[in-house]
Amino acid sequence: MKKIILTIGMILIMGTLLCILTGCKENQEENIKNTNDMTESNINNAGNNIEDTNNHQENTIKNETNTSNNIQASNSKEDKNTSKNDNEQTKEKNETTTNTPKKTTFNVGKYTLHYGKYKGSGTKLIDTSIVSATIIVNLKEDGTYTYTSTNQKVSEDRSGTYEIKNNNVIVLNADEPLEYTVMGNDYLIERQSSGFTFHYQEN
């Protein structure tokens, strides 16, 4: 801006000297007019330059803002992808933990029993008749059992929890508990009068 003002001043001085030297009033007026036109033109140009500079600065700020927004959007997308990957890894870890093989056996004294179904067959004297039945006892890992009989007169179906007693007896808890002595690996004998023997049934 100072350079423009100095230039205008120089032009005015030179025009004035030229008029004095020539002594021509008409030329002096013409030169003054030209000088004024040049001055106005230079002022307009200076204003345009300032406006262009302001526009350039505004565009620069807008570009920087857009760039910042793009970077933030990109970072947000990366964060979401990272979060998604973390969730997938956590899910895989949980699935791996869930797929851990369950315990399939337990010990009663010196013998080993499998969780699962034990089948027993036998007869029982009811009144004056001998009645046969097949019974399935399902010992579950969570400490519960189911008991089903093919003849409800011999023994009724039931379910509940079971426990180990005296280190060799399995007790099926119910209104009338049933006790089974463990005679070997996967081998039980009912201690009630029926004397049914039970063997583990592999799946």
Reconstruct the topology from this structure.
Elements (H helix, E strand, L loop, with lengths): L1 H21 L2 H74 L6 E4 L2 E4 L1 E11 L2 E11 L4 E6 L8 E8 L3 E4 L5 E7 L2 E4 L6 E4 L3
Antiparallel strand pairs: 1-2, 3-4, 3-10, 4-5, 5-6, 6-7, 7-8, 8-9, 9-10
Helix pairs in contact: 1-2
Task: Walk me through the structure.
47% of the residues lie in helices and 31% in strands. With 203 residues, the protein is an alpha+beta fold. It has an eight-stranded antiparallel beta barrel with strand order 3-4-5-6-7-8-9-10. β4 (129-139) and β5 form a beta hairpin. α1 packs antiparallel against α2.
Distance between the termini: 98 Å
> What Rg, in angstroms, do the CA atoms define?
52 Å
Largest sheet: 8 strands, antiparallel, barrel
Q: Write down the overall geometry.
A: rod-shaped
Low-confidence stretches: none
Number of strands: 10
> What's the helix count?
2
Question: Helicity range of the residues?
Answer: 40-55%
Report the β-strand fraction as a percent range. Answer: 25-35%
**Based on helices, strands and strand pairing, what is the structural class?**
alpha+beta
Mean pLDDT: 76
Write out the strand line-up for the largest beta sheet, numbering strands in chain order. 3-4-5-6-7-8-9-10
